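It is worth pausing here to work through a concrete case rather than discussing structure prediction in the abstract. The textbook approach is simple: state the sequence, then state the predicted structure, then interpret. We follow exactly that order.
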Amino acid sequence: MKALIPFLSIVSLATAQPPITRDGSDWLQIQTGTIPLDPTGRVHISTEGSVVLRGLEGNGPVTYTLKTRVRSSSHTDAEVSMRDFQLRMKVFGTMLALELATPRRVMHSAELSIVVPNSLREAIVTTLGGNVTASDLACHLQVETAAGRIELERLGAGVSLKTGGGEVRIGRVAGGVRCFSGGGNIRVDSVGRESWFETAGGDIVIHNSEGTVHASTGGGNVQVDRSAGEVYAHTAGGVIEVREAAGLVTADNSGGAIQVSASKGVRCESSAGAIRLKNIGGGSVRATTAMGNILAELLSATRIEDSLLSTSSGDITVFLPSNTPVTVEARNESTGGRGIVSDFPQIRVRPAGMNSGLAVLAQGALNGGGPILRIYVSGGTIYLRRQK
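Step two, the predicted structure:
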């Protein structure tokens, strides 16, 4: 940034350095001021410390409060260090850029609180290590912090977030969200559009989404309570749980369980975990696991598409409604277990024949037949149950 305007030249209320007071083992200074800004413009804030950004109705100026702390043995040394905190600004058309310079030779911290008109077109916050809190903004928000926590509430547009390893907490956001954390948890109350959430190792919890959800973690759990669209979930080792989705649920788990309580079709794959599917209505049902049981309950009075359930080591239990048209084709190649157990006389269970070893086959049509439900087990039992 070039041609920067020094801090004192942009302060409208203070003409001298504010007083410095003792606060525990630190020295504290509080500075305040106002900056004129086009209410439909943009703001870019850059600092090493924490930022609190809040929107306010109306066309007023930007107001700020800067709290700075230094660790020093004397008031005189602290006063010298405080002079190195400088809030500089530059105006590029309707863009206001604020940069906080900090001292290099002492232990210090800074928190910059800014109130802006909520009619802004965009707000950008960049910090090298502090936390970021933002609320009551109607504009698009972009936040990047190298290691701090991010907290958002009551935002009226889309959000782009990135943290090197801190936790992300999102309250209500009317737009879509793109969020990445290098290792922290991500927790979301409500988002209004299709959103992407990714963390290298934390949990992802989403309570409500009015659009499609994309959630991926390198080793934590994924929980989606409700999605008005589809859900795409991935984890390398946690548990995936989707409680309600209006669309298809696609879940991939490299080392844990998957549970879907209500959706319009599923595509689930686990390398080493159980899969539990309930209230699946419409769409295809595809679930495979290398090691674990599969339980699937189809929603009554709905028509599924061609489907597949498969496990290499575990049982498969399917609850079929009495009014669902479906054709069942099951194969069990297990050397143990009970083969195939069926509640339906329409489904014939028989050995596959001398050339097929110990495999057991079952085939039959329910309610006149329909889409094919294929079931494969290599090391367990297949249960075809009548849903009550």
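Step three, interpretation. The mean pLDDT is 89. The longest strand covers residues 26-35.
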